[in-house]
Amino acid sequence: MKRSIRRGALAIGVVAVAFLGTACGEDGGSGAGADPAPATTTTTESEMDTATADPAADLVGPGCAAYAEANPDGAGSVSGMAQDPVAVAAGNNPLLTTLVQAVSGQLNPKVDLVDTLNGDEFTVFAPVDDAFAKIDAATIEKLKSDADLLTTILTYHVVPGQTAPDAIAGDHTTVQGGTVSVTGSGDHLKVNDANVICGGVTTANATVYLIDSVLMPPA
User: Fold this and answer.
1) Over the stretch 140-164, which tens digit does the pLDDT of each residue have?
2) Who's near 206: CB < 8 A, 6+ residues apart?
3) Which spans of this chain does the record mark as coiled coil (predicted)?
């Protein structure tokens, strides 16, 4: 009698195990029939670095390498200038001290274009200090007192919107209203008669082309 009871209990246990196994297979649990967990996407540090634009990637001009070597880091470096609006970036560039004086009211107190230059997107043809040194002393003295003339010259170097080196060739209407003509390609660009020393330098709101002569608008 006891042996029969044990056999009955064993049979019930086997049935119960089988039932539980079937239920687990049907309820979408962790069995083979369960839907796979959604895949997650992880962005690696190298992928993030690749996605970050290199400010030096599109530079053109024979003087870019020398400038980068002389200014490898800091606010005046190519990467440093990319962080600031154009008037601030120019102030950190050791080649543009005279231009900065001209646009900030230091040359002529009545001419301060800093807020204008920082307030929108521009392409700026920026004469280096040696370019201003080519201008005769009498003209420089005149610019110190003739605000209209200085403003006309400075705004002739500024074009609305940003234009990269691969699209810069051609005629461009300046903020002054006149037209500048960019010719050549690659490391051999000219703006009117001025040579581009290093172009495609990006700032927070502008693309800058360092040039070796001051552009004079047509009379």
Assistant:
1) 999 999 999 999 999 999 999 999 9
2) 85, 86, 89, 117, 121, 122, 123, 124, 162
3) none
